[in-house]
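Thread: quick sanity check before group meeting

JM: Hey all, I'm pulling together slides for Thursday and realized we never actually wrote out the predicted structure for the chain we discussed last week. Dropping the sequence here so it's in one place. If anyone has concerns about the input, flag it before I start.
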Amino acid sequence: MTETMRVGLGEMPCIGLGLWKIAREHTADMVCSAVAEGYRHLDSAADYGNEAEVGEGLRRAISSGLVDRDSLWVTSKLWNTYHRPEHVRAACERTLKDLGLSELDLYLIHFPIALKYVDFNVRYPPEWTADPSAETPEMLLDPVPLAETWAAMEELVKAGLVKEIGVCNYNTGLLHDLMAYSTIKPAMLQIESHPYLTQERLLRVAAQYDIAVTAFSPLGALSYVELEMADTGESVLEQLPVQAAARRLNKTAAQVVLRWGLQRSTAVIPKTSQVGRLKENLALFDFSLNDEEMRAISALNTNRRFNDPGHFCEEAFGCFYPIYD
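JM (edit): ok, ran it. Output follows.
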């Protein structure tokens, strides 16, 4: 197991720092600390609302000599309100400005969900609803074909704003369709994946198309309890196969689950707001799970999806919009 994986024409570190839900006031320090600990892969998005602070952390890390730009892999994502082709470049350029970069290593379509455009001067990031201050905030859909959005993503590569492009939260059907119409093929598929949601068929399809895969929320429920999208009793870290492997290897349960993800040939982007956890989450290359442990952890699969628009869009935004069957 190497520490990098091929993504398009580049080499991406297999472990990254996920920047979702890191508070803005802590983001710059966390980014700088992560780089100091050895992280070279940062996973960002306009919707996370902290890209300017990520940029400040990057500026500090680079100016202090901790790292140079060419040694970093920075990913960001196109938000749902910018799917119309005329908005794609402006959205990317806003992300680049906030991050203080001239080029992204990877830019992804965040969801296969197109929402009505919200101007930067009205609200940024726009979030999910057209007017969050309304008495009953609503999602407003925009009928934009994904093929048109992808063509605009391809133009970003041609313009030298991004090196590689890809998608998040696509299912197998959307991947088949994308491969049929794309001129520049997707280099990355980013999906929720952990022992409760192994997504075996989707991983197999991605491999057939030579698309790399990144697993977000690789530790499962931990990111969702505070959002009331998971129960405290759903932690995969307490499961017997994980605990047994941790004891055998003298590793933490989190390290075991992250290593399981790596041995499935996916990159992992665990999020943490604790500096002490940075080193732990990065220390995954001095041990391996055996075949029996891999099978036992994979057998925990229940197809439990925590990040599902089919649930949270209706509950929070009054719009039933499932993208997974």
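AS: nice. The chain has a mean pLDDT of 96. The longest strand covers residues 162-168.
JM: adding both to the slides.
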